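Propose amino acids for all 290 sites.
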């Protein structure tokens, strides 16, 4: 019962949150119920224009821990309305094989079977604590796409002493990562790229807007992304790393970033909802904060 992302001729905006390993199962259940009932449905059920506008402009996703995944899918499916935006559910990782002797691992085909729409791969924390590389991320991205889900591929330049380095170096490193992580991924399938500079994850503040814009521009113009677009494989690009309300308007530029991938600053339902509304509102060609 794979829950697919609704097809879109244009790059709809994206806003999602990963709960990483911060939440208990009870808190995840409560977060989803309270976000959908107390914010999304509460505001859209009495305002059909808002429901239609969000549904046409934005895709919302929640990435809980593995054990909460099936109940998260069930919760979001049960609460789904026909005219409002969908809340998609994703996984934080998977194996690159569909089945076999891989004790403790999670199969991408089982993730698709239980209604998962997205699989996040190559996150900086997986690279740092579990030794994941671009080559492993590419194999996982192939497996996710093969199983009809969207690979959410995380990339970002390294520490540079815990602070931003030269933007040109960041552009080069990130484009090289994108090329490696997309190796062998079906070029007709959609992928999402989360640009998350390592030094901006878990920090007090996100990366500066000029830095993010420049790196996103380089990814957008890269040969691999252009080639995929030519073959029909949409590439949506998100920014992540201490993102929260108030950020998207600063980052947005024409043909730039498509959305935000949130962590701590959306672990409160109201902040998540606030960010979604802001992302949907920002003018298509420019950020409001120019
Ligand atoms: O890693 C992130 C999303 O994948 C971002 O996490 P924080 O927003 O908590 O820094």
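Proposal:
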């Amino acid at each position: 019962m794979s829950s697919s992302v609704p097809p879109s001729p244009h790059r709809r905006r994206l806003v999602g949150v990963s709960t990483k390993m911060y939440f208990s199962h009870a808190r995840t259940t409560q977060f989803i119920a309270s976000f959908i009932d107390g914010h999304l449905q509460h505001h859209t059920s009495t305002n059909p224009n808002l429901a239609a506008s969000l549904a046409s402009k934005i895709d919302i996703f929640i990435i809980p821990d593995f054990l909460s995944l099936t109940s998260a899918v069930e919760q979001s499916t049960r609460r789904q309305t026909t005219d409002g935006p969908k809340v998609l559910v994703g996984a934080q990782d998977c194996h690159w094989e569909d089945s076999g002797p891989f004790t403790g691992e999670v199969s991408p085909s089982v993730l698709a079977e239980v209604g998962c729409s997205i699989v996040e791969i190559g996150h900086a924390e997986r690279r740092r604590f579990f030794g994941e590389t671009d080559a492993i991320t590419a194999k996982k991205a192939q497996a996710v796409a093969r199983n009809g889900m969207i690979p959410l591929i995380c990339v970002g330049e390294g520490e540079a002493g815990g602070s931003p380095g030269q933007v040109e170096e960041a552009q080069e490193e990130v484009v090289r990562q994108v090329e490696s992580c997309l190796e062998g991924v079906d070029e007709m399938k959609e992928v999402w790229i989360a640009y998350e500079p390592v030094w901006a994850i878990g920090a007090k503040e996100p990366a500066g807007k000029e830095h993010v814009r420049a790196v996103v521009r380089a990814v957008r113009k890269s040969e691999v992304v252009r080639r995929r677009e030519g073959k029909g494989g949409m590439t949506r690009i998100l920014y992540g790393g201490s993102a929260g309300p108030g950020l998207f308007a600063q980052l947005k530029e024409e043909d730039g970033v498509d959305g935000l991938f949130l962590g701590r600053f959306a672990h409160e339902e109201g902040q998540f909802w606030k960010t979604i509304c802001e992302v949907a509102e920002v003018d298509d060609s420019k950020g409001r904060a120019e």
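The chain has eleven helices and eight strands. The mean pLDDT is 93.
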